[in-house]
Amino acid sequence: xxxxxxxxxxxxxxxxxxxxxxxxxxxxxxxxxxxxxxxxxxxxxxxxxxxxxxxxxxxxxxxxxxxxxxxxxxxxxxxxxxxxxxxxxxxxxxxxxxxxxxxxxxxxxxxxxxxxxxxxxxxxxxxxxxxxxxxxxxxxxxxxxxxxxxxxxxxxxxxxxxxxxxxxxxxxxxxxxxxxxxxxxxxxxxxxxxxxxxxxxxxxxxxxxxxxxxxxxxxxxxxxxxxxxxxxxxxxxxxxxxxxxxxxxxxxxxxxxxxxxxxxxxxxxxxxxxxxxxxxxxxxxxxxxxxxxxxxxxxxxxxxxxxxxxxxxxxxxxxxxxxxxxxxxxxxxxxxxxxxxxxxxxxxxxxxxxxxxxxxxxxxxxxxxxxxxxxxxxxxxxxxxxxxxxxxxxxxxxxxxxxxxxxxxxxxxxxxxxxxxxxxxxxxxxxxxxxxxxxxxxxxxxxxxxxxxxxxxxxxxxxxxxxxxxxxxxxxxxxxxxxxxxxxxxxxxxxxxxxxxxxxxxx
Length: 507
Prior knowledge:
Layout: H1 15-47, H2 71-101, H3 106-121, H4 124-142, H5 146-161, H6 163-172, H7 177-203, H8 213-220, H9 223-226, H10 234-242, H11 249-275, H12 278-283, H13 285-288, H14 293-324, H15 342-348, H16 351-362, H17 372-390, H18 394-417, H19 420-427, H20 431-472, H21 477-500
């Protein structure tokens, strides 16, 4: 780049141009939300004919039936109200008492309290299943074989998805569907922690003593992170457990701010499920494929946005409690509107899972230091792991392959951008034009990033409807309009990302 030119990311554009970008993205986005609101109001009785008004909701004054098609949100909300809230509240009390009077035995107190909570929430039989998983992992860890640890992990994930083991686990859950799903979700999250602990033990030198079983159990059953994450690696947890961050005024203010944000987003999410039936509309494929373009745009946009907001609430609540214990959690999920590449999506949406994948799969398989081919194979292994861990269904395989293809194309693009020819021509551009070129190149990436995530959220059938509307039956006008809106979105992100995300942790 010629001397004196501003980098593309920081080059300022004229205010009138930025205003046009704001209107070009936010105008269609807000209007699409409005038309989904009108559609939801019109189709309320059609979609939820057999569903009564949910008077147990904390937003009864809205007077609208609730969209319950988002199983995950309804599931965790129900369990939170029925007992998990008391588990978390009790943990805070135990944590504060132990910190003030018996900090030396805090680890043991956490573990005892965790077992007590899980006995009442899950029952003793599911708890035994989770303990059995731990024992198998711990035995594999003592043998110091990373390959064996991965084999154990792959096998236990298979038991969660096997028809035979599903029947057994359902029986052990007292033939209660809610308890069975809670066992399934917590077992899946535990596998990542168990793998992290086991692989950290395998890294120890032969003359180093392995971490104790109490260390393992207190990490795996740590209540704030046990049910739904976020994922944190063992070495990070162990370091903060030994040297917790003091709870001073600054940290307490940050915790209060985070909890307020979580509470506000929880209310907004609950209100959205009463007013905007995007989940149910997306699942009704016969309705979805016959809707006008703007309604389909709004449904897809809302689903992607509230997927992020949902995890802001779920991860944010757990993370806030871990901060009270002096543990620094992974970064909160970054808003999907501020992510315009596949690489950034994987790095910043679920930072804890990304750290796990990089540390235990990507780097051991070569990462970026063993050439492009090894790098792409390592990336494929990461996507394969995530797909398999989520259940390995057809739509997940499709989603993983599409995302990996996106990473491959981005890698090829990065290589091409570094060639002498491209560098020569781009160096002739001003900083502003370099920024415009960057946004132009990333606009189609953002469009397909959103589309591929809709495959994950709504399945392949819904994904095909979106693809058809924007890239087949809507070509070329709809396609060009979409890409123009994505171009505006990238420009807005380039303007605000350094302001909003310059610090590593959200404060």
